[in-house]
Each structure stands twice: as C-alpha cells, then as structure tokens.
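hi!! sorry for the late reply, been swamped w classes. u asked for the two structures so here they r. pasted raw, havent cleaned anything up. first the sequence of the first protein and right below it the tokens
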Amino acid sequence: MMRVGQKTSPLNFSTADALRLPFNDSVFDAVISGFLMRNVIDLQKGIDEQFRVLKEGGRIVILDTTRPNPKGNILSPFIWIHMHIIIPTLGGLLTGVSEAYRYLPETTEGFVTAEEMSARMASAGFKQIGFKRLMFGTIAIHWGEK
C-alpha cells in the first residue's frame, strides 16, 4: 500500500517499528493510525510512543477494530456470522487469500474494547479523549489531544 501511495502522494513515507519510532520528541502536530494498534505486541507502548512524538496540543486519531459488546446487543449473532463467515468468504473470493480474512475476527475479538482503548490513551497522558463506534460496534475511531 505504501508503494502505491508514494507514487500518488506528495507526502514523505517511512517505515518504522511502532514501538520505537525513529523521531525526536514533540515533532508532529498529528499522529494518525489505521488498523495498526491491534497488531502491536505492546499496545500501551505503541500509544506511549505516539504521545511522545506529538507536540503539546497535538492530536491523535486511531481507527481500529474493537471488540463488540455482546451484552444487550440483539445483533451479536449476526455480527459473529458477518465476522466469521461473510468476511472470510468474500475476502477469499475477491483476493484468493481467505486466511488473511480469518485473521481479522481473531484479532478483533482478542483486542481491547473502545472503553479500554480510551483508558489506555488517558494512561499515556492524552486529554479530550473520545470515540465513536461504527460497523455495529466492530470498528472505533478514537481521538485525543496531548
């Protein structure tokens, strides 16, 4: 994806370990990650690193899957079917690699809830934290300020 983006974007791209970002402290106005945090070995360290590289007043936005809350959600059986059957089947048909789409529900169900992500962001020092659930509670956008 980065190679394609580099061809069409004026932005500079770099690859790095999300737990050891190769940037000085307080250099970015914003840090945005999409479907990254559920894949890091140490979630709190990843959040701490993003906090470290942000300037005072800088903003963070995290888009990632989140564990759906089954309590009181009458759609829970349908969400399970969607995540475990529909996504892997369609993903496999479209790409020929259904294994990659079995990984998604496993990592989503093993990941933190939206509330837990907010608490970890607060632990790192973020303020003005909020989130919005999407896709029947399986995706969340979190934001905060340093």
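now the second protein. again sequence first, tokens right under
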Amino acid sequence: MTEAGRLGPTERLHRSRARAWILQIHYRWESGGVEAGLGRALADTMATRRISPRRLPYVRRIVGIMEEHLTEIDAALRAALDNWRLDRLSTIDRAVLRIGAAELLYMVDEIPPKVAIQEAIRLAEAYGGDDSPRFVNGVLDALYKRRRAPR
C-alpha cells in the first residue's frame, strides 16, 4: 500500500510542504547560519518563521532522524553516488538527497520507498537545477536497490 493509500490528500500535502521546510532548515544549517546542528537550525527557523502545527511534527521527526543518523545517511549516499562526491554537490541537491535517504532508510515502514523517491524528485524539481530531478532519482534509486540487495 502506498502513502497515498494510507494518507488523505490533506495529510499528503502537509507532508510535502513539511519536506520543503526541512529543505530550508537544512540549507540554513549547512550555509553556515547555524553551527550547533539541525535541531538548532529548526529552533532558529521557528523563532522567525511560522511552521504550520500540522506540518511541525513531521518536520521535527525528519530533522531528528537526519541529526541523529547523518553519518549513516551520508555513508549510504556516498555508496550510491557514482563518480560524485557528496561534498561536491550543491547544497540543495545534498539536502534533497539527505531528506530522501532519511525517509528511505529510517521510515520504510511508514513511507513506501517509491513515495520517498518521488517526493525527493519533486523537491529537486522545485528547488534544484535543471539536472537535479534526474540526478536525485538516480542516486536514491541506487540507494534503494543497494538496501534491498541480499547481503
């Protein structure tokens, strides 16, 4: 069953918009605006911007996963990148990949992998460069296939 089958259209919309907030928070953190981590970037963002109470729990959850598991998320992305280095990607592409990877790796029981990948592609279409959607799709698909492969 897909996220679309489990969630109503309003909840899907809130999650999509929550992902856009997470992208902004990550950008703020990584651009040097906040040295203390993603959780601090979230707090600083909330001090100056109003995140809908319907979106905030999901924002907090993904930001928490990313902060707690950033090393593992980045390692999984590095393994899925072909001829690219994570630190050489644009800030937006890196953020989109981290959000998608957090959902793929740590929310698999709640969010079907294809939904996580499609939502990351949508973020890349909205905020990334011309090649970002294809690139994000390729990397997250490779990560997904690596995770599914028998060990």
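hope this helps!! also noticed smth abt the second:
Residues 3-146 form a domain with the N-utilizing Substance Protein B Homolog; Chain A fold (CATH 1.10.940.10).
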